[in-house]
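agent> Task received from the user: take the single chain below, predict its 3D structure, and emit C-alpha cells. No templates, no multimer pairing.
agent> Plan: (1) validate residues, (2) run structure prediction, (3) serialize to C-alpha cells, (4) report one or two observations.
agent> Step 1 OK, no nonstandard residues flagged.
tool_call: predict_structure(input=
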Amino acid sequence: MATNIKQPTTIDQQIEQLKNRGMIVDDDNDLRRWLSTVGYYRLSGYWWMHEKRYPQCSPRNHKFREGTTWSQIKYAYIFDQKFRRLISTGIEKIEVAVKASWSQYLATQYDTSHPHEDSNIFKSNVCTVSSIQGQPSAFDKLKKTYLNSKEQFALHYKNKYPHINTPPIWVSALLLTLGELLNWIDGIKKRADKKAIYKEFPFDYMPMQSILNNLRWVRNVCAHNGRL
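)
tool_result: status=success, residues=228
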C-alpha cells in the first residue's frame, strides 16, 4: 500500500484554508491562477515569514500575522524570481572569466594544450586515472563528461582526434562545472600558479576559492528555482 501522510486538497480548498488562517485575498481568481501554475508548497516558502510563529517550525499553527495580504506574497515571489535571474547572470560572468583565466594561463605558462594531464603541474589525485577510496579523480570525471558530451565542439574533437582522452584545456574548461573547476584549481601544485590564475581578480587565491564555492551554492539555488 502506498504511503499517505497528507490529505490532498483542491485549489479552492487551499484558497479557503489560506483565508481561514488570516491571509487577506482580494482576488480569488488571481490566487487560483498562482496556486495552479506555481503550487501551494512552493508559494508557502514566501508566506512562511508572515506567520505568527515565524521563524519557528515546530509547533507551527500556520496562522498569519494581522494584515498579511496575498499581494505581499505574490510580489515577494516576483522579486525573488527577478533577483535570481540577475544573480545568475552575474555568477555566469565570473565563472566564464575564471575558466578563461585558468585555461589561458596554464596553456601558455607550460606551452602545451593539455597541462591538465601533467602530473608535474597537478597533484596526482586530480589529473591521473585513479581513485581515492573508490572516488573518481577530477580527470576521470572530465574524461567521462567528454566521452558522453553531445556538444558540437566535443563531437568535433572526438572525430578529429580519436586517440585523446580529453580535449585541450580551453575546450575542457567548457565541460567543467564550477565545483569541478574549483577542484582543478585547488589541485595545482604550485601556489604561484594558483595566484597567477586570479591575478586579474580583486582577491587572492584562498578568498577567491571561498567566494566561488559560496557562489556555486547560490547558483544552484538559482538553477533549481529555490528561494534566494
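agent> Step 4: summary for the user.
Strands lie at 131-132, 135-136.
agent> Done.
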